Amino acid sequence: MKHVARKRFGQNFLLDRQVIDRIIASIAPQPGDLLVEIGPGQAALTRPLLASGAELHLVELDRDLVAWLEEQFSAESGLTIHSCDALKADLPALTGHRPFRLVGNLPYNISTPLIFHVLQWSDLIIDMHFMLQKEVVDRMVAAPGSRTYGRLSVMTQFHAEVTRLFDVQPESFSPAPKVVSSIVRLRPLQQPPVDAGSIENLRKVVTCAFSKRRKTLRNSLRDILTEDQIAAAGINPGDRAEQLGLSQFAALARSLPFDAN
Questions:
Q1: pLDDT tens per residue across span 75-130
Q2: Which residue from 123, 132, 207, 216 has the highest number of Cβ atoms inside 10 Å of its Cβ?
Q3: Which residues touch 243 (CB under 8 Å, ≥6 apart)?
Q4: Rounded to whole angstroms, how far apart are CA atoms 107 and 131?
C-alpha cells in the first residue's frame, strides 16, 4: 500500500521487524484474548496479533486506512474494524462490555489525553501495551521530586502498575519521528493503592496543584482548600506539588467535600 503518512493524524508507521517481534513477545497474545488495537495503521502489529488466535478490534480514524484494512482483512474472522476517533470512542461498548486488553502505537499529539481517556475503564482493561514518546513514558513512571513528575505520573500510578519495557529508535519508523519512543505496560490495579475518597476529588487536587507547580500548595490550592485544611491533612502548605507522593495527594483529596466537581 502506498499511503502518505498524515501529520494531522500523527502517523509514523512501524517497519522494524525486530521491534515488532519484541512488542508482540511483550504482549504475548493468546487464543481467546479480546484485544483492542488503537491506530493499527498499516497493520504491522495487527497481523501477528490476529495470527495468535485472539479476537481483535481495530480503532482507526484515517478513513483511507480503514478502507485498506477492510480490503486486507475482509476474509478474516475474529477481526472487527471500527472507523472512529479513539479519543471519543466508548471502548467497552465496542467490545460488548467484556474485559479486554489494549494495544496501541499512539499518535504523539494525542497520547496524554488518550491515556486519561482509557484510564476511566481500568476496571475492564486487563492490561495495556503502548508505544509512546519516551518523554511521556518518563512522566508516567516518574517519582516525587523528579522534574518529570506531574499530573500524568500521579493519575497513572493511582490506576495502574506502570512498567517501561524498552525504547525504540526513530529509524524503526517511516517517516522517522524526531524523538525516541518507548514501549510501556500498564496493568490496572484491582484496588486503588490509597484511599482518595473519590477519583473526582483526586483529579481536582492534582490538576490544581500541578497547574501552578512552581507555587506552594497554599497558593496553588487556594481556590479549593484553605491553608488550615492542607495542614490538617498532614501536608506542609509550603511544599510544592512535585514534593508530594500519591498518599499525600489522596489525603488532600479526602479533605474536599465528597461531591466536589
A1: 888 999 999 999 999 999 999 999 999 999 888 888 999 999 999 999 999 999 99
A2: 132
A3: 144, 145
A4: 9
Contacts of 159 (CB under 8 A, 6+ apart): 119, 122, 186, 188, 189, 192
- The CA distance from 224 to 230, in Å, is 10
What is the model's pLDDT at position 259?
A: 54
pLDDT, tens digit (0-9, with 9 covering 90-100), for 188-216: 999 999 999 999 999 999 999 999 888 99
Q: Is 219 exposed, middle or buried (0-12, 13-18, 19+ CB in 10 A)?
A: middle
For residue 140, CA distances in Å to 34, 88, 108, 169, 250 come to 25, 22, 14, 19, 18
pTM: 0.90
Q: How many residues comprise the chain? A: 261
Distance between CA atoms of residues 109 and 192, nearest Å? 29
Residue 209, CB half-sphere, CA atoms under 13 Å: how many?
A: 31
Question: Where are the extended beta strands (E) located within 88-231?
Answer: 100-105, 125-133, 160-168, 173-174, 181-188
Q: Which three cell numbers stand for residue 118?
A: 482509557
Q: What is the pLDDT of residue 9?
A: 44
Distance, CA of 172 to CA of 217 (rounded, Å)? 43
Instruction: Measure the CA angle with vertex 165, ends 164 and 170; round to 5°.
Output: 95
